[in-house]
Write a structure and sequence with these properties.
There is one protein chain. This protein is mainly β and 86 residues long. It contains 1 helix and 8 strands; from the N terminus they run αββββββββ. It is 5% helix and 58% strand. Strand 1 and strand 2 form a beta hairpin. The protein is globular.
Length: 86
């Protein structure tokens, strides 16, 4: 799968059926030794008053349930979220 093929798809919470948003930017983390996609990393930036909050959400590739033609099914409870304020 190419990264360009996954952009523009809607991310759906597999457990609740809720729409989480449309994937506009992401990066693949590749396991160089095994040669497969290890993690889908999604950076987010939000303004909280006067402070900017940057978050990175990481989904392990084996925890993504399905990548369809228009949607990606994930379980957010299995995601790793890293947040920093600037």
């Amino acid at each position: 799968m190419r990264l360009s093929e996954i952009l523009g798809k809607e991310i759906i919470d597999y457990t609740k059926g809720e729409k989480l948003g449309i994937l506009t930017y992401a990066e693949f983390i590749i396991d160089e030794n095994a040669g497969y996609i290890h993690t889908l990393e999604i950076p987010l930036t939000e303004w909280n008053g006067l402070r900017k909050r940057k978050s990175i959400i990481q989904f392990k590739w084996n925890k993504i349930y399905r990548v369809g033609e228009e949607t990606i099914l994930v379980d957010p409870s299995e995601a790793d979220v890293q947040t920093e304020y600037k």
